[in-house]
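RETRY 2/3 - previous attempt timed out on the joint model. Re-submitting the same 305-residue input unchanged.
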Amino acid sequence: MSAHHHTLEVVRFCLGNWPAAVEARTVLACRQLDPDTPDPALSDLTTLPGLSPDAHNAPRLVLEWTDGNARACWVVTGPVTLSTLPITTIHPLPPLLAMRARLPGVCALAWPANAHEQEVILLMDLTRISKPVAC
Amino acid sequence: MNGITLNQIVTQPTTVRQTVIELDDPLVKLVIFELAGQWFALHGHKVREILARARVFFIPGCPPSLEGVVNVRGDMETVIRLHGLLQLPEQEPGQAAAILLGQGAEIRSGIRVDRVLDVLDLPESAIQPLPTSLPAHWHTLALGVLRYREVPVTLLDLDAILTQYARGLG
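RETRY 2/3 succeeded.
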């Protein structure tokens, strides 16, 4: 949380066409995915069930992330940006959504930060996704 | 001619002429609504609010019966469709569509309906047991039937509905 405790610093990216974010404190780095020599061991978050395919020509990036112990890498769709979310916009998953939705790793939702944004932001807890790949 | 005179009528206390109301029959508040051409009701105490126009935000990874979430004064509530659970034909929400924000079995959710018809108090005795002619799968989801504007209305059990929905039905 920020010094004011009214916002949460997040790293925003996309899963398919969908806006998503993780806590910024867990992200170590971000780098371009080399399309010529893709690492087959990299876990691709953009292929999680329930997501539509990536936006055409959207940049693919590797997010280096830690849970405090291990380091892991995940492929996400760009752009990747540092952002803040007011804590009043962040909500735990409503009960029926938690029970019925099939979107692993999503632990909370945030209302769109701006009026022009159309979608709810998926807040991810990457520890909930099994088998992160060491990098 | 029934033997009563005008003088008798005007001199009779008004209370004697009124229809006798059974005071022991408690009233129940019902929200009556339409879904896929059929009329249903929910107990009023299970419905916290009726949202006439609310923007529903789609969430990926949800079954088709889970429309998404709505912002209710800052709170996030799901919106579900009961067509699958009640085995009703799917229809796109029309202009009169609304969301009933209900709570049952300690689960809170919005329920999409095609049209809210009325919110009214009825004597409890107006609710009749479920007839055997009702579809078999409704028997675990309904509490009784009643007539409203001469149309049969099925009173749904929101506790059972939300419990079954949470278990993956519908």
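Chain B has one domain: 25-166. Closing ticket.
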